[in-house]
Amino acid sequence: MDPWVNMQHSKLQPGTLWEKVHQTTYHALASGALQPIETQYDFLYQGEMRFLVRILANLNRKEVAKQAQDKSAADGKPFNPFLPYERALFVSDLTDTHLCLLNKYNVVDHHILIVTRAFEDQDTWLTLEDFVALGICMAEMDGLGFYNGGTRAGASQRHKHLQLVPLPLLPEGVPLPLDGVIAQEPLPGTPTTLAALPFSHRVLALPENWLQNPETAPAYLLNGYQNLMAAAGLDLTAPIPNKPYNLLVTRQWMMVVPRCQDSYRSIPVNSLGFAGSLLVKNADQMAILKELGPLTLLCQVADPQPVLNTATLC
Ligand code: AMP
Fold first, then answer.
1. How far is the CA of 22 from the centre of ligand 1 (A)?
2. Which of 14, 179, 196, 201 is most deeply packed, by most CB within 10 A?
3. CA-CA distance, 112 to 90, in Å (whole number)?
4. pTM
5. In terms of DSSP bridges, do strands 263-264 and 90-93 run parallel, antiparallel, or are they unpaired?
6. Which tens digits make up the pLDDT trace of 78-103?
7. For atom 7 of ligand 1, which residue has the closest CA?
8. What DSSP character marks residue 286?
9. Does residue 156's CB lie within 6 angstroms of at least one atom of ligand 1?
């Protein structure tokens, strides 16, 4: 299917996504299909970054669901929560290839998932169709789009899913902790590294108003993604990405972080961690994080390829 055709035949009526997200949330909370994860939060500082750290308020439903999913896989019946998806979590069709769901176990309100209709593996490359669907959602919701590319990058589900959380992440301060660092220097439109970020990464600025033209927006994203992946040391000619990675996309910039492991000293990290938002399970993990420092944690889970011109916090 030609993604340009998809773009012209977006299945979402423009200007309706936010209302649909709200409506679906309202009903899914009432029915119990949506099971938000309660957290408290604090801030930790290291280098020039202020990290938002959320702490689980109690043993959470997602853990219980994960145990059930692991058991199902062990019994030879792998469970796919997106095929079929829970009807009560369905927000909207997006294109012929993608649809939008609420994240069932959301930490952040109105966290949406952009999933492929047919099964595709989370370990495969992102495609123009993926970016068409992401572009449709980002045009309607100002947020952080992200992709956990592989289990070692924090993905818990095999079925391909991009994600979008609305900004700001908190009512006060910069919309996203990472924005505080990104705002310090003008970003080029080609892959670069930021001196304040000691973990491996590549970042670039998206052209101003790129979202205003739905015909070209997905191509900007695909092009940026491929440039960043190549600069971060991934082999674009390989059939699937040869390293796990996290992709972060806002209306202003895109970043790729190549990964080597999903967690360090029991603390898991996904794309949100690199945006400056971490999640710990309990006080013990919080104590470890304070002792380590959040940037040091990120250095430990990012691929240790040498990055030029960065501070030496790792
Ligand atoms: P990730 O863990 O990054 O792979 O993202 C997958 C997301 O899917 C997680 O954040 C889960 O909360 C969410 N999830 C798990 N089960 C379901 C479900 N049945 N419907 C919708 N979202 C789900």
1. 18
2. 201
3. 10
4. 0.94
5. unpaired
6. 899 999 999 999 999 999 999 999 99
7. 103
8. H
9. yes
